[in-house]
Amino acid sequence: MSVRGDELFLSGSDISITGLPKVSLHDHLDGGLRGQTIVELADAIGFELPANGAEALEGWFENSADSGSLVSYLKTFDITAAVMQTSEALTRVAREFVNDLAADGVIYGEVRWAPELHQAGGLSLDEAVAAVQAGLDQGVEDALADGQRTRTGQLITAIRHAHRSMEVAELAVRHRERGVVGFDLAGPELGFPAANHRAAFDYLAQNHLPTTVHAGEADGLSSIRSALFDGRALRLGHGVRIAEDITVERQDDASTFVTLGTLSQWVKDRQIALELSPSSNLQTGAIAQWGEELIDHPFDLLYQLGFRVTVNTDNRLMSNTTLSQELALLSDAFAYDLSDLETFQLNAAAATFLPLEDREELAEAISEGFDEA
């Protein structure tokens, strides 16, 4: 990749990756704050930060998140959650979140967050959701004023090691006509399978609200199975460890044979989207069994085998990244060209939790934008 001003360009070309239309499926609200916003919100409530100044604080987040452990990675969210406990703070963060998506060429973004983590200041779950939606709406209006068309949808997240998933599922259904498009399960994965929340997933299925489940990041195939069959997940949050169910054999004559297990075959055949987040997957150690560099990521293997791979940021603050940067990094690592990047965006558009007609409209906008690149 090359960088010119605020834009990222495809290596060896004049094609601006930043300017390409993109879809973001896996992006956490409390993982996408601006450093300066954290400083200002913390100062307003007298909250002590681990570093002084926005730049130093952003560096602290990136260094702390690069731990090789999901549990350690998640500890950084104690800071962002602490400054997101009022309606005003939630609205500001959500508005800026959309501003930053729009600046990165994202035309549709699903924004996931856990309302149950934002009640320390006395907000009800419904008040918290309404505050975030107000900010998202303001961000969309800002984009329109700048001549950009950006849309958003909320993914209401339940925390897998807590016991409020039914309450959160009911919350999501209540707000489905007010910005909520789906449900997510997140938090420490190992030891907390989706099966623990089967009642909530049954309720969501009965009310036809789609779900995505974090699985195949800090735990393996059993977690993915539970996400699919207990959680009825239409997408897998990360899902990178589905590659554990794929056997690659290289012969002496340089030929390669690939065998899919029954689980990976199921995921491939049904085009269950994998919400892959390359930089984050490196930071949390999700791909440690394959290596420590981006080139070791199973992303390309999954792509070449026909899985519905999508590219995501996970947490822009913790990974010091953008969706454009993730695409650029993958392009450099695996020599992807413009058509590959378009495929990733069309995969994401097809996997959104929007109605079919809206998904088709997104796909058209993506194809038009790439044709003009």
Automatic annotation (TrEMBL):
One of its GO terms (biological process) is adenosine catabolic process. GO terms for cellular component: cytosol. Belongs to the metallo-dependent hydrolases superfamily. Adenosine and AMP deaminases family. Residues 21-367 form the Adenosine deaminase domain. Pfam families: A_deaminase. This is adenosine deaminase. Keywords: Hydrolase, Metal-binding, Zinc. GO terms for molecular function: adenosine deaminase activity; metal ion binding. It comes from the Bacteria. The lineage of its organism: Bacteria, Bacillati, Actinomycetota, Actinomycetes, Micrococcales. Its EC number is 3.5.4.4. The keyword Zinc applies. It is an enzyme of class 3 (hydrolase).
